[in-house]
Amino acid sequence: MLKTPIISVQHLVKNYGDFKAVKDISFEVYQGEIFGLLGPNGAGKSTTLEIIETLREKTSGTIVVDGMNLDTHPESIKKIIGVQLQSAGFYPNLNLVELIELFVGLYQTNIEPIALLEKVNLVDKAKSKFKELSGGQKQRFSIATTLINQPKIIFLDEPTTGLDPQARRNLWDLIKEIRQNGTTVIITTHYMDEAEVLCDRVAIIDSGKIIAINTPNELIDELVASGFEKTKEVKMANLEDVFIHKTGRALRED
Ligand code: ADP
Ligand code: MG
């Protein structure tokens, strides 16, 4: 893969009053990759994403998205990115097709609602309201809304939190498919198994600082090379494998 940076973050700092939430972080996201921002609660993941998304002011630092500087071209950046809306933004009385039509109008694009619902496997819910969807379906719909303006980059903040294993795998497939179609994906998660199967590269962020950045494979190899050994004998499967093996991969009331 050609490593062309599509996002460049240099010396990003974010203070909330006296509190330093993001402490001088720098990283690049390459075009066409799935980039994971990993870290415990409060690490600064959402703050970082929302600053790049132009939704939050930074304290200092330089951000360039697809060649455009965030300080001078925020409106142009907004046009090429897809951001998951908070569920509060989904008007309660509109069904999924009507919601998509509303967003299509706002973005002035010409996406066909049913075609978009097809992408996320929700055609049979076309006439349902957002609140009537299960957790996994809500997440799929919210990911669909990021695609309405046919963005170059989408931002997913903990899209699989709270989902059951089937719904989680289904969402992984969807995210891979979106990337396959040429969209760069930035995702936050605190599930390491998810990052391992999904992300081309990850940055581990803790207390506002990036403490590691690499491919999952190389990070693991580095740790092993440093002499790290697991204390327990590693089995060829884990409990999640048992669960999926016995209950199958088919989607439920996700
Ligand atoms: P993460 O997404 O990694 O869980 P956040 O970026 O949401 O972390 O938060 C990073 C830190 O900044 C946390 O300690 C959080 O409490 C604090 N924080 C986030 N938003 C605000 C805010 N609007 N005002 C003050 N502190 C905030
Ligand atoms: Mg967060």
Strand and helix map with partners:
Blueprint (H helix, E strand, L loop, with lengths): L4 E12 L2 E12 L3 E5 L6 H8 L7 E6 L2 E2 L4 H7 E3 L12 H12 L5 H7 L15 H12 L6 E5 L7 H16 L3 E6 L2 H7 L2 E6 L2 E6 L1 H10 L13 H9 L7
Parallel strand pairs: 3-8, 3-9, 6-7, 7-8
Antiparallel strand pairs: 1-2, 1-4, 4-5, 9-10
The chain binds adenosine-5'-diphosphate (ADP) and magnesium ion.
Adenosine-5'-diphosphate binds next to strand 2 and helix 1.
- Low-confidence runs of at least 5 consecutive residues: none
Strand-residue proportion: 15-25%
Q: List the quaternary state of the chains.
A: single chain
**CA-based shape:** globular
Mean pLDDT: 92
First-to-last CA distance: 34 Å
Main sheet? 6 strands, mixed
Please tally the β strands and state the result. Answer: 10
Supply Rg: 19 Å
Helix content: 25-40%
Question: What would you call the structural class?
Answer: alpha/beta
Q: Which ligands occur here?
A: adenosine-5'-diphosphate, magnesium ion
Give a written overview of the molecule.
This protein has 254 residues and is an alpha/beta fold. Helices cover 35% and strands 25% of the residues. The strands form two sheets. A six-stranded mixed beta sheet has the order 6-7-8-3-9-10, sandwiched between helices. Strands 2-1-4-5 form a four-stranded antiparallel beta sheet, with helices on one face. A hairpin with a 2-residue loop joins strand 1 and strand 2. Helix 5 runs parallel beside helix 6 (165-180). It is globular, with a radius of gyration of 19 Å. Adenosine-5'-diphosphate binds at residues 16, 19, 21, 39, 41-47.
